[in-house]
Amino acid sequence: MVHTFSTMLPLGTKAPEFKLRDVVSGAWFSLNDLQSDKATVFIFMCNHCPYVKHYNEEIAALSHEYQQKGIVFAGISANDAAAFPDDAPEKLKEQAQSFGFDFPYLYDETQQVAKAFKAACTPDFFVFDKELKLVYRGQLDDSRPKNELPVSGKDLRQALDAILKGQPTASEQFPASGCNIKWKAGVSPF
């Protein structure tokens, strides 16, 4: 594990086009399939990372809560499954079922989607508005494995609440922190 911070993609960036398969249903999803008239949250995540494991329950709870309010969620795993077999699609499916993820959990085998988003770590959170422009990127909250702060989802919740109220998200946003994305040999992340 290499501790890594998110790249903090510039706000206003348009969400990149993609088409990926859901590890649970086997269905294909494109960016347009996931566009919401409120907001869409993409979470770069995986199965083996201790940071993601620290947040799994809150990710499930937060997605349950906000999907009822019209916000769409999708998880994306881009880790090299050959080098990290715990992040292979069948293991991601087990993770999704174990935690009750009720959102598509997409597998980015080529890692091209992660590169397009400039995703750097797991977990890495991106929120796009109804026009698919980036309005939040960064951390879920201040909690980390071993820092003893409770997991609350505070930062992401504040961004989603602002969107639902028709208000701008906070201008000060803090980078996500976690394990680096496990790039395939010879793949340059950006």
Descriptive key words:
190 residues, 10 strands, alpha+beta, 23% strand, single chain
Roughly how many Å apart are the termini?
19 Å
Strand content: 15-25%
Quaternary organization: single chain
Low-confidence parts, pLDDT < 50 over ≥5 residues?
none
Q: Tell me how many strands there are.
A: 10
Q: What structural class do the secondary elements suggest?
A: alpha+beta
Shape: globular
Mean pLDDT: 96
Fraction in helix: 25-40%
Main-sheet strand order equals 3-2-6-5-4-8-9
The string of secondary-structure elements, in order, is EEEHEHEHEHEEEHE
Number of helices: 5
> Which value, in Å, is the CA radius of gyration?
15 Å
Largest sheet: 7 strands, mixed
Structural overview:
The chain has 190 residues and is α+β, with helices and mostly antiparallel strands. The protein contains five helices and ten strands, in the order βββαβαβαβαβββαβ. It has helices at 31-34, 50-67, 89-99, 112-117, 154-164; strands spanning 3-5, 19-22, 28-30, 39-44, 71-77, 105-107, 121-122, 124-129, 134-138, 177-180. The strands form two sheets. A seven-stranded mixed sheet has the order 3-2-6-5-4-8-9. A three-stranded antiparallel sheet has the order 1-10-7, with helices on one face. The longest helix has 18 residues, at 50-67. The radius of gyration is 15 Å and the shape is globular.
